[in-house]
Amino acid sequence: MEPLERNTSNSLGAPDVIGLDPQGKVPTPRSLMRTEMTDHDLLRSYVDTRDADSLSTFLCRYEESLLRFVGKLLRDPDVAQDVVQETFLRVARDPKRLLSVESCHNWLLRVARNIGMDHLRKLTRVRRHAPHVATQAASVAAERQRDETSTLEREEERARVRAEIQKLQPRHRELLLLKVQEGKTYREISEITGLSVTYVGYLLHHAMKSLAHRLREKAPGGVS
Asked: pLDDT for 184-209, tens place per residue?
């Protein structure tokens, strides 16, 4: 009798060399390799071969960061989702442009920020010519802000700081989000916003003073 061969496959008939991921799919060596590729390597792969999985891997790396930044910048998660999708569409239409940039993350933040600012400008024009709509929008925004504040009050000091950042003027809010939340340097913030490094430092100085004043006002025993 010939010896029985050892079964090295799992119940799905796949070799046990690679385990199942949480969705029940078997990762391939190619998919595992993509997660270790640099941004530029993934984009080059998409440019050269139109490998959609390479593009998807690249976009997934930054989706959460972009949604977080744009969502807090615009204070509207639904619009933020649209802005991020438009940003990704611009990558898909012309991925070659990113091959020459130093930081793909900074490029994505800059594009998403510009699209978001365009949305804010359009919203401002609509409010200027439609006071009734503006009043309703402001009421909804105010109610949403009250709900968010009520939730944030249960968090620790970091949550209180984030809430106060949201109340700053748009320019200060934008710069503090990039500096505090995204951890960008003055030079990187300059590249994303188009402002000079010196002016970024000047604005951040005043933004931090304004934030500190707000925090003192809201502290127990602070001046209201």
From this structure: 999 999 999 999 999 999 999 988 88
Spatial contact of 198 and 189, defined as CB atoms under 8 Å apart: no
End-to-end CA distance of the chain: 91
Inter-residue long-range contacts of 206-210, CB under 8 Å, 24+ positions, other chains counted? 206/172, 207/168, 207/171, 207/172, 207/173, 207/175, 207/176, 208/176, 210/168, 210/172
The 10s digit of each residue's pLDDT in 103-160 is: 999 999 999 999 999 988 887 776 666 555 556 666 777 777 766 665 555 566 777 7
**Residue 82 in tokens:** 């649209």
Q: Which amino acid is at 37?
A: M
Domains in the chain: ranges and CATH: 28-129 (1.10.1740.10), 155-218 (1.10.10.10)
d(CA 85, CA 207): 30
What's the whole-model pTM score? 0.61
